Amino acid sequence: MKTEAIKTETRSNRGSANARRLRDEGKVPGILYGHGEEAVLLSIDGRQLSDFLQTSHHLVKLQIGERQESALIKEVQYDTWGKQIMHADFARVAMDELVTVSVQVIGRGTPKATQAGAVLEQVLHSVDITCKADEIPDTIRVEVGHLELDGKIFVKDLQLPAGVKAASDPDSIVFLLQEAREEIVAAPAAAAAGEAAAAEPELIRPVKPTEEETEAAEKEKEKK
Amino acid sequence: MALMPKRVKFRKSQRGVLRGEETRGNTVAFGEFGLQALDYAWLAARQIEAGRVAAQHFMGREGKLWIRVFPHKPLTGKPAEVRMGSGKGEPVYWAAVIKPGRVLYEIGGLPEETAREALNRVAHKLPIRVRLLKRRPRQ
Fold first, then answer.
1. Residue A85 CB: number of other CB atoms within 10 A?
2. Secondary-structure class of domain B33-76+93-134 per CATH
3. CA A32 centroid distance within chain
4. What is the pLDDT of residues B72-120, one digit of tens each?
5. Which architecture characterizes domain A4-93 according to CATH?
6. ipTM (interface predicted TM)
7. With respect to CATH, is domain A100-179 assigned 1.20.200.10?
8. Of A56, A80, A81, which is closest to B137 when you measure between CB atoms?
9. How do residues A6-39 score in pLDDT, each as one tens digit?
10. Contact A82/B26, CB-based, under 8 Å?
11. A119–chain B Cβ distance below 8 A for any pair
């Protein structure tokens, strides 16, 4: 289990304008919280954090001035383009503490049936696991080469390292090998007819009462 | 057949304003590769369909394709040689409102080179600039 020490500084300035100024300097605003201690506002070196996030490590060591703290990455916010990190959340963690984190699942191998047109679908790209903080695996690798048509790999089938338990629903499907569906090609005439009808979809409106119903309603009112 | 809503509340809609970047639907959520819009557009249902056909034709029976946009907006037009006025025209086609950052299509279950080529073919059918997006390792 590798952990990286990321250099950070504490900051006192809050607010979006200050956060923007930090980002302009190549830093990322962040926060460290948890364990009943006071939350600490941080400014993190953007490049170092970005490099760290390219790895699949969950546990991070934060160098805050003289002291070092271990933390879990709780959330990372990106801009629209997924390039710039806008903000990062860290939660304090002890090495022997049980934590639940989401770990990436990677499939290995190619099922033979894919050559015959079957499609291997990865339904879950990450799985929640519970384990000690220093035992969090970077990724979970799954052998999918042996799958046959209509074969499935469930969460309960995953081979997890010792001390690691799956927190996701054990009956959730992770990988699924199914036959490819034939593409439905509409005939040109049918498509044209469909488009003509398609120009006017059904309107969602309250149904207007018929004349008979309105007359009956008026008579009832007169009786009252 | 081109996409369109089954039921709508109103037959015609006002134009609206396209501004800002997409804050939702801007990451790869289903497959491994996506096509992200870089411009504003009203993407017509037939253009979305043309993209789908281009990708499916190239992919054959391999892999899986997701369309992440839906044409909710009815756009109207007036017939040829009709004077201006006399009210709004009749609905002509349906379009998806696209802002920069929106992921339009996603592909899964294919190697990168094949997925890249398939999405490149989709890009040629679209009226806007797009870029290839990969699934972020940590999501």
1. 20
2. alpha beta
3. 21
4. 999 999 999 988 988 999 999 999 999 999 999 999 888 899 999 999 9
5. Beta Barrel (2.40)
6. 0.79
7. no
8. A56
9. 888 898 888 999 999 999 999 999 999 998 888 9
10. yes
11. yes
